[in-house]
Design goal:
By secondary structure, the protein is of the alpha/beta class. The protein has helices at residues 26-41, 57-65, 70-88, 102-117, 179-188, 196-207, 238-243, 245-248, 256-262, 275-288; strands spanning 7-11, 15-16, 45-53, 95-98, 121-131, 136-138, 143-145, 154-156, 164-173, 193-194, 213-214, 216-218, 227-228, 231-236, 267-271, 296-300. The strands form four sheets. Strands 1, 2, 3, 4, 10, 15 and 16 form a seven-stranded parallel sheet that branches. Strands 6-5-9-11 form a four-stranded antiparallel sheet, with helices on one face. It has a three-stranded antiparallel sheet with strand order 12-14-13. β15 (267-271), α10 and β16 (296-300) form a beta-alpha-beta unit. α2 (57-65) packs across α3 (70-88). It is globular, with a radius of gyration of 19 Å. The structure holds zinc ion. The site of zinc ion has 6 residues, from loops.
């Protein structure tokens, strides 16, 4: 942050709209709003971003289970449940971005294309497990022995449900290349991940080595997501899409002066269960795109939600 920068940009994880909110969803927003208001009171141009994460297999399945289309389902949830929650708890946010908006989709594609053109994305064979509940690829070490009706099967440690075995040709992001740059960044910016316990967890995770990350899903399985710009038989992995909301909301790709005014974010507040996405994958994506890294990823003790 330079001395003349008088902005304070703070984000919270965008809500995953497979269901209606409960009071736990308000926690991060209230904490971030307090911080944003304090900076505003000091005369800073304080910008709090909120939004909704609307793609992914879980949203599609939930919409289908409710005899709806995913777009109609998310439209209804956003307008009838999520925006009213913000009214109720009186959050003073400066923008609210939905990942189904064109301003988000076209600039996610712009970002993807840039990484692809510069060699950070390649096509490869994916074989492994995927938990739809987590919307996350799982390693063996993330799985546990199931019980009850899932006795004898391996299940997601968080959801206690069987994972999907995927075998697809996907696009991969060269995350492994960023192990050392990330460790260097953590070392040189000791405040980047807070609190200390969160920092220690991430440093030890990255020190063990990083695998390249599958960032697409074949449309043969499901198609509720943003098309890969150079291959319309694939959609973008929902987390790669969702993380980019923090930059598409402030003009990445099309409003350079607004973008430079607010980016990098001063603080990004996240729940502990999504710390790795924000403190490992996200800064690596930004490094690959040649963009500055946020000042701090703050991981609070609660999960993003219990749904
Ligand atoms: Zn899971």
């Amino acid at each position: 942050m330079t001395a003349e920068k008088n902005t304070f940009y703070i984000t919270t994880p965008i809500f995953y709209v497979n269901d209606a909110p409960h009071i736990g969803h308000a926690y991060t927003e209230v904490a971030a709003d307090v911080l944003a208001r304090w900076h505003r009171a000091r005369g800073e141009d304080s910008f709090l971003l909120l939004g909704t994460d609307e793609h992914g297999e879980k949203v599609l399945r939930t919409a289908q289970a409710n005899n709806s289309t995913p777009q109609a389902w998310t439209d209804r949830l956003v307008h009838d449940a999520w925006l009213p929650l913000l009214e109720t708890i009186d959050i003073d946010n400066q923008d609210f971005i939905r990942t189904t908006e064109d301003r988000h989709k076209r600039n996610v594609q712009r970002f993807m294309q840039k990484l692809y053109d510069e060699g950070f994305i390649y096509q490869g064979a994916f074989k492994g497990a995927y938990c739809v509940g987590c919307e996350e690829y799982k390693n063996k070490s993330d799985l546990v022995e199931g019980s009850g009706e899932y006795q004898g099967q391996e299940v997601c440690a968080i959801h206690s449900k069987p994972v999907e075995e995927l075998e697809e040709t996907n696009y991969f992001f060269r995350l492994s290349q960023f192990q050392q740059p990330l460790l260097d960044h953590y070392n040189q910016n000791t405040e980047f991940i807070a609190p200390e316990s969160a920092r220690n967890e991430v440093v030890s995770f990255v020190s063990r080595g990083l695998d390249d990350l599958s960032i697409s899903r074949s449309k043969e399985k499901f198609d509720w997501g943003i098309d890969i710009p150079w291959d319309d038989t694939h959609i973008t992995y929902v987390w790669f899409d969702a993380l980019l909301n923090y930059v598409t909301a402030i003009g990445y790709g099309e409003d350079e002066s607004k973008f430079r005014n607010y980016w990098p974010a001063n603080v990004q507040v996240v729940g502990k269960d999504i710390l790795r996405f924000h403190a490992v994958i996200w800064p690596a994506m930004l490094m690959a795109a040649g963009l500055p890294i946020p000042g701090q990823i703050f991981g609070h003790g609660l999960g993003r939600s219990v749904s």
